[in-house]
Amino acid sequence: MACCLLISFLVFIPVSIIFVLKKYWDKLSEIPPVPKLKNEWWGPGQPEGEDNSIKPFEINISDEVINDLHHRLRNTRPLAPPLEGTRHEYGINSNLTKEITDFWMNKYDIRQREKFLNQYPQFKTKIQGLNIHFLHVKPKETQGLKVLPLLILHGWPGSVREFYEFIPILTTPQKGRNFVFEVIAPSLPGFGFSDPAVRPGLSSPQIAVILKNLMLRLNFDRFYMQAGDWGSVVMSDMAVLFPEHVIAVHNNFCMDISAKAIIKRILYGFWPSLIVEKKYQHLIYPTKAFFKRILAKTGYFHIQATKPDTVGSALSDSPMGLAAYILEKFIDKEGQLTKRFTMEALLDNVMIYWINNCMTTAMRLYAEKYNKKNIDLGVDKIPVPVPTGCARFHFDMAYFPEALLKDKYPNLIHISDHEQGHFAALECPEVLATEFYNFIEKVLKLQNN
């Protein structure tokens, strides 16, 4: 009898554990309904006959702003010297910060760079109470070509400056391709020359509503998308919320950070060959080393998701501090800043944050994304329903094998691997554009079948 009870107990315990785990797994696998979001008003006051006009815009930096910037740069306090034998282990090396500050003050020609930034047609239009800034670049040659509307989105700490070398490739006919793109590149709300929200709640799903309305105002009912970083989050939300408008999406920051994906990543750590080629296993395994790298790279993330206004106060007052905080994210795996980027291009991006005093409002996106109200919408748990392409860059923040992407991107039809880093449109525009063109060719073939 005792033997029978022991056997029953030994059977009952693992069966119960399996039952509980299956129930938990099924819960993680549940897909919530797509929420219906309204056209909320994010500007000051109350909605009153919004002006739908689209107005040309040019960057015009006042002498007062330039003089103030130079005054602050000249009077920057001496920085604490770096520890002996260190590079950027403690954050950006203060010797490099000094080089950046000196270049900005003595070699960066603001008026020349202003002309550079004004080379593309720019506009503003008010949507849901916010003035939204965007570049709108049409192809010069269209004869015999399909012209495809394309919305491209930047992230943090980036801006539309990331796209200045990318856009000409997209709007210039490519040999052997029968299509070219008409590009719309907005500054996300709270970034660059776009207004920030005046009340809480503007996260990526709500930004998706604004940008969908921008495209409709420009008479694009159906369009393609390409994005990275926060832009890729907004892009995925747009595809989930408005698949009737988004034809296909190409992502250079494909990721799934759901609890289900994390569990899969850990379990596959026992058999990594099941999900990733041997030559790429070092990018995700051993699991402990992978999560250690993520923690080391995302120290900024937690404070921006909880107290963005605190750090924003310092960055809004010190151009040197702002440059150090932003450009630390552009340092490559070899500890180099200007091997893949020019100092002018990097400071163009910093200038956009400085002259608009928008670092605080840009960082608030982290806090808005990770509050309970937004999480409860469940948009992140809904798979992207449209054809998806993914360009993976090995020195990005994290590498996601295809097996870990399929839940989020069930229609993943094109995937590629590259050696570069996070800011692909700025670092390697030709590589990113080629992959995007290859992806769109596949989409067009699917449409013709």
TrEMBL record:
In its UniProt entry, the species of origin is given as Henosepilachna vigintioctopunctata
Residue ranges occupied by any Epoxide hydrolase N-terminal domain in the UniProt entry:
54-163
Q: What is its EC number?
A: 3.3.2.9
Q: What is the lineage of its organism?
A: Eukaryota, Metazoa, Ecdysozoa, Arthropoda, Hexapoda
| Enzyme class name | hydrolase
UniProt GO MF annotations: cis-stilbene-oxide hydrolase activity
Write the record's keywords in alphabetical order, separated by commas. Answer: Aromatic hydrocarbons catabolism, Endoplasmic reticulum, Hydrolase, Membrane
Q: Which GO terms describe its biological process?
A: epoxide metabolic process
Q: Which residues form the active site?
A: 229 (nucleophile), 366 (proton donor), 422 (proton acceptor)
Task: Enumerate the catalysed reactions.
Answer: cis-stilbene oxide + H2O = (1R,2R)-hydrobenzoin; 1-(4-methoxyphenyl)-N-methyl-N-[(3-methyloxetan-3-yl)methyl]methanamine + H2O = 2-{[(4-methoxybenzyl)(methyl)amino]methyl}-2-methylpropane-1,3-diol
| Subcellular localization, as worded in the UniProt entry | Endoplasmic reticulum membrane; Microsome membrane
Its annotated function is as follows: Catalyzes juvenile hormone hydrolysis.
Q: What is this protein called?
A: Epoxide hydrolase
Question: Which Gene Ontology cellular component annotation is one that this UniProt entry carries?
Answer: endoplasmic reticulum membrane
